[in-house]
Amino acid sequence: MMATGIKDKVAILGMGCTRFGERWDMGAEELMVEAFQECLADAGIERKDIQAAWLGHCLEEVGMGKSAAPMGVALRLPHIGITRVENYCATGTEAFRGAVYGVASGAYDICLAMGVEKLKDTGYGGLPNPGSGFGSLFWQWFPNASAPGLFAQVATAYAANHGIADKDLKRTLAHISAKSHANGALNPKAHLRRPVTIDQIMASPIIAYPLGLFDCCGVSDGAACAVVTTPEIARQLGKKDLVSVKAIQLSVSSGYEGAFNEWQGDNFYTAGKCSLAAYKEAGITNPREEISMLELHDCFSITELVTYEDLHISERGNAWRDVLDGFYDRDGKIPAQIDGGLKCFGHPIGASGLRMIYEMYLQLSGRAGERQLANPRYGLTHNLGGFPHQNVCAITILGGDK
Amino acid sequence: MTGITAYGAYIPRLRLSRLAIYQAMGWFAPALIMVAQGERSMCNFDEDSLTMAVAAARDCLTGMDKKAVDAAYLCSTTLPFADRQNAGIMTTALNLRDDILTADITSSQRAGTTGLIAALDAVRAGSRRQVLLTATDKRETKAAYFYEMWFGDGAASLLVGEDNVIAEFLGSYSVTHDFVDHYRGADRHYDYMWEERWVREEGYAKFIPQAVQGLLKKLDLAMRNVGKLIFPCLFKAEHRTIAKCLGAAPAQLMDTMHDICGETGAAHPLLMLTAALEAAKPGELIVVAGFGQGCDALAFRVTENITKLPPRRGVHGSLADKRTTDNYMKFLKFRELIQPEMGIRAEAPTQTAMTTLWRNRRMITGLVGGKCRACGTPQFPKQDYCVNPDCCACQSQDDYEFADVPAQILSFTGDLLAVSVDPPAVYGTVQFAGGGRFLADFTDCDPQDVRVGLPVKMAFRRRFTDNERGFTGYFWKAIPQPPQQQQQPASAEAVAGKEVQ
């Protein structure tokens, strides 16, 4: 066994990210162009310098269809190899992983990772119905569930298993959403830029008990992309303050949570495993002390809450106390969702992983403007796609290249 | 000895107050006030004649060896499929053997009694040892109609055999007349009814006595020997008059359950018979008749074995577990008599892959999972590799039925975003005692009663209806059992012994 992990083998040469939101003016193709233009300028390269690309696009049935060809066409990439990947909400991170591995393997010098989603062409709010898009068996027995309803399962189980009163849980979840709204208000690219109060959140209508409207993230259009290369090439190209990849890990359910008898329904088993593997790859031994900032998959406030525990930063059953203590606020020990998170930046599924990396990249290179944190060391991004009992978890850790 | 060896029943939990129909539509049909008393049973949105049949048959098979059943007949005029044997769906749901005879018996309100005679004749002739006979109906009417008031939804199921007979079959007598009191064209949803006075005087009042008197004469019995005389009749006064003409005293006449259930079509004679059996004493003579283009009459003598029948929910249990509603609009929506806007979200593709359904029929229709021979873990669905991470044995699982395994709620939500006929859509993870779990729809529940840790029972229900293609998909749902539903049902005597007012 010779695996040495990805740490410090690949650096980010440039990134781009569109404004997220209800982009009635653009399809997925135009969104990609918007992100790509920014990325090329940031990287200081031309499109001909890109040797291979990975496209992350999740809901092709309401987006731009199957295969990588729509990206080749939209960006006029000159007949290079492009791979389309899809892995639920980890799709954007999967594209990044493909590009990073492409460079790390030595097969290519410069690779592009693009994530894009066009969700606002369905005619209704929320994500599209599962329907037969999940295969011909799934929907013959799976409840006609919505995403909020599936993640609400975690909230009812968490409250019951930890003996937390409904009102305490609601207030905790409201604090999480209020914090993200406050952060998103500072971000010109965020979808939702209005600060909201705890009381407003608590009074919002129920979507799926116990989750209310403000416990749910925005359904947005958007694209984000990265050009990656080796640290050596990045320096040769004149790049300073390099941001390099410290870890990329993925954990996918085995059926254990959904069909065996041990999992308690109040956490994400994959995230618990994935984070440990990522810390090991990055050489982090005490995440609560070493991680500077988090971009978590806050599709719903409850997801963010239990992820604090799954990342081994808050103790099991105690994340709600850390939340109420302000530990994850912008001025707390480990700020989470500095860019507004899925909650306010928005959640174009295939783009989200790369959007999180974009914020870490800006923060680590000191370019986050009003949102800039002081001397961040490690930034962790996290995606969770699927259902609490059967999902895909992706974690990346980024840091300055020392 | 040939006869009935077990009985079961199912009446939906929902009951519609008849007054609610009048209150909504009395402006249009003032005469409704004459019949706006009591309540009728009403299917939930995910119930139909097939799901009720499965529920009644499960009740009937309580404590019985279902693998010994070698024929199953399903009697109804409202089966979901005109050409896909409904009895076969039922037996798949019940996990009966594959090498049995199955048949749908239909096209008359008499289908239940005719099916019962066919079952008894088959056993008596020695060609079948045990026949499961289930009758069910969910009849539709247009809104604001007497018959909407009078009809109810329900099912009854009887096991017919030769061993441990609880009611010995003495004989049957039938008359057939093409008397069209009502009819339903093959492509029609609703009945077309002729004048009630004619139906009462020329139909009920003539054919029921013909059949019952013919039977008593054939068996050399007299009405004074009869403990319970059972026959449905939509008309209360006619019911009493016919009994009187036949020489039956009010105490001998079985109540039609009009006030608490309504008439359940082809199921009703057997539902009434089941209620009678629940209260019957050994030695009692029971005569049951079913009207419909003529009349069938059957006679049974209750045996000592009736005292040994394992306890079951039955008619009295079904009647006790009720939720009365005055929400007539809900009744209309559940029966697709109104079409509220469901939104674009409801337009998701619903085509069913028959190949997939066939491969997974035991899982989908029968709620059969697997139990690993290597590590003993029950699991759902059954897959090639065992789900226990410390085992992962390959093709190590035997079939394992989850339908009757006790279970409880591990997590849940009430979802107002998901498309539902009766929002919120309540669903959650169900954990089975001894092992096995899955994310299941909940039904027959009030969202505010749902809690983590609450017991649930599994029920065969409609999962979806594909109106574009005329297909109905079925799966199993969990019914939460809040403390007030775990109470003992009312005594059998309270229901079956109820005398005619």
Shape category of chain A:
globular
What fold name stands as the CATH topology of the largest domain in chain B?
Answer: Peroxisomal Thiolase, Chain A, domain 1
Q: CATH homologous superfamily of the largest domain in chain A, by name?
A: Thiolase/Chalcone synthase
- Per DSSP, the total helix count of chain B is 13
Task: Characterise this structure.
Chain A has two domains: 11-121 and 222-236, Thiolase/Chalcone synthase (Peroxisomal Thiolase, Chain A, domain 1, 3-Layer(aba) Sandwich), CATH 3.40.47.10; 147-216 and 243-400, Peroxisomal Thiolase, Chain A, domain 1, CATH 3.40.47. The mean pLDDT of chain A is 96. Chain A is built from 15 helices and eleven strands. In chain A, helix 2 (69-75) links the parallel strand 2 and strand 3. Chain A has 402 residues and is an alpha/beta fold. In chain A, the strands form three sheets. In chain A, strands 1-7-4-2-3 form a five-stranded mixed β-sheet, with helices on both faces. In chain A, strands 8-11-10-9 form a four-stranded mixed β-sheet, sandwiched between helices. In chain A, strands 5-6 form a two-stranded antiparallel sheet. By secondary structure, chain B is α+β, with helices and mostly antiparallel strands. Chain B folds into three domains: 3-334, Thiolase/Chalcone synthase (Peroxisomal Thiolase, Chain A, domain 1), CATH 3.40.47.10; 344-363 and 403-485, OB fold (Dihydrolipoamide Acetyltransferase, E2P), CATH 2.40.50; 368-401. In chain B, helix 6 (196-218) packs parallel to helix 7 (236-245). Chain B is globular. Mean pLDDT of chain B is 95; it is low at 486-501. Chain B starts with a strand and ends in a 5-residue tail after the last helix. Chain B is built from 13 helices and 22 strands. In chain B, the strands form five sheets. Chain B has a nine-stranded mixed β-sheet with strand order 5-4-6-7-1-8-13-12-11, with helices on both faces. In chain B, strands 20-19-18-21-22 form a five-stranded antiparallel β-sheet. A three-stranded mixed β-sheet of chain B has the order 3-2-14. The interface between A and B is large, with 49 and 55 residues.
